[in-house]
Amino acid sequence: MRNKVAGFILIAGSLYYLLAEAISATFFKYSLLNTYIFHTISELGIPNGNSPLFWLMNSGFILIGITLLFCFFYKFKDYIVKNKFILYILAVIASLGVIIVGLIHGGNPLTSGYHTLGAVMAILGGNILLVLISRSMAKFEKYQIITLILGIIGLIAFWVMFFNMGNIYMPVFERLSVYTLVLWCFLTGIFVVSSNI
After folding, report:
1. Nearest to 88 by CA among 150, 152, 133, 35
2. Tens digits of per-residue pLDDT, 72-99?
3. Per DSSP, what are the bridge partners of residue 80?
4. What Å distances lie between residue 80 and 91, 96, 132, CA to CA?
């Protein structure tokens, strides 16, 4: 039962996030393609005229953070056989980072530093979490290989984004570094549901 609960919550949380972003982007000031290529996810969460559904995007951030935190400690920790303490810390850092992003929006000079901190916690912490998870389970099979690949892609995308903040295509790398964690949540939901552990 714990497998199904955790698995379905992970699947639902990741799908909700993607749907919340897609709907928020659809109602953003610019075209859908323009929004996904030239505007960051954080912009969708800023309460202004550009993003009338900012609350929906922020709910996606908060929900995926709560989903990851709950499911990791409710069930996924049972699959970890080593590096447990550091993985627990990284899971908390990544989850709280996403929640901070949803609670403290960018665009405000007084709070943007906290928003940026939350984004770094979520993206960097989350993708390091994936890499370490892939090497901390009892087996290294298809699921672990996919987890490792996603973590590496996310870290590469993060560093490309970090050193090209002024590039007009920076939002593409931002999304790529975020989607690795969201996709992992979805795939992990399937993995947990179908697992016998």
Report:
1. 133
2. 999 999 999 999 999 999 999 999 999 9
3. 137
4. 12, 21, 10
